[in-house]
Amino acid sequence: MAEAQNSPAPDAARAGGPPPVGSATTGAIAVAAESTVATRMSAPPSYDVADFPVPHGREEEWRFTPLERLRGLHDGTAVATGEGVKVDIQAPEGVTVETVGRDDARVGRAGTPVDRVAAQAYSSFEKASVVTVPKETVLTEPIRITVHGEGGVAYGHQVVELGAFAEAVVVIDHTGDAVLAANVDYILGDGAKLTVVSVQDWDEKAVHAGQHNALIGRDATFKSFLITFGGDLVRLHPRVTYAGTGGEAELYGLYFTDAGQHQEHRLFVDHNTPHCKSNVLYKGALQGEGAHAVWIGDVLIEAAAEGTDTYEMNRNLVLTDGARVDSVPNLEIETGEIVGAGHASATGRFDDEQLFYLMARGIPEKEARRLVVRGFFAELVQQIGVTDLEERLIAKIDEELEAAVA
């Protein structure tokens, strides 16, 4: 794969890591570094939708989003219907599953809405699902949450809470057709370990927007995989904060953007506590006219967060003409007492040399292309640790590639 790599930023170097990125532009591929202060939000966080003006598309946090395709989620005209989505939760023995109201203390504890759609979701859901893993419980089977769209408009809220030293894997699977705004809270007790795999495998007309908040306790580990394939428009906002020292966050993402799709991932890691770590790696592939992927990676190291170690990387593979990537890594450091910090972004077209190398060894072109893209995503998929899901994702990637050459 030939990549457009940016020159290093002197203040973002990290020993042993890849070179950080400043800015680069290649045709319709744009990569830019900007101030984190400008990109995080234009209004203070709030649970009240009235505190956020209706976006017009010129705001920093909305400038990449085609607002008309949000189907009214951003301006209050999307009214929930009874046939919006169906949620099914399959949990191993020992896990508690509850349905609660907005006044439950766990709802919203991990983070406050930072844009109008997230606030609209919080203000509009009727009941929230709360999944609780008791302290010191180590699950050997995943918790599986299925969100299936049934053609309507829906608002939702999901909470996953792990007690101290608990360990769990949660798979959240989104399928069907819906217009959905839903927030998810992850609350990790001290020493807890949580792996979350959120799969957006919607039908082609679906719209999905939401904010994912993770509150990481002392010495806790949070690993997130955000996998996006389907939908007309998907706009997700993962956010991480730390509730104690020694917390670690690993945020991985995989997206495959087809013709006409808009897929947007906007991350924010707030290093507000000393001696915590974060690592971000998102990879995307794009094909077809009008395919548009947006990745915003904001990392803030606050003045109190001494001993922070952080790195973020976004890589994109453009398979055909007519696709566009906007990749914006941001890093703001308020203290010099850190272990390491850096960011990088690389976007390139399919490497003809790699293709020629494989074909010269007797591999047909179609199979060679599949092998290159599979290899591009393999390091992410293989880290999930759920065999049936890994196999399904690889099959989905193959299906996307089949469509490209059909």
From TrEMBL:
It comes from the Bacteria. Residues 1-26 are annotated as: Disordered. It holds the Pfam family SUFBD_core. Residues 149-376 form the SUF system FeS cluster assembly SufBD core domain. SUPFAM superfamilies: Stabilizer of iron transporter SufD. Belongs to the iron-sulfur cluster assembly SufBD family. This is Fe-S cluster assembly protein SufD. It comes from Streptomyces thermoalcalitolerans. The gene is sufD.
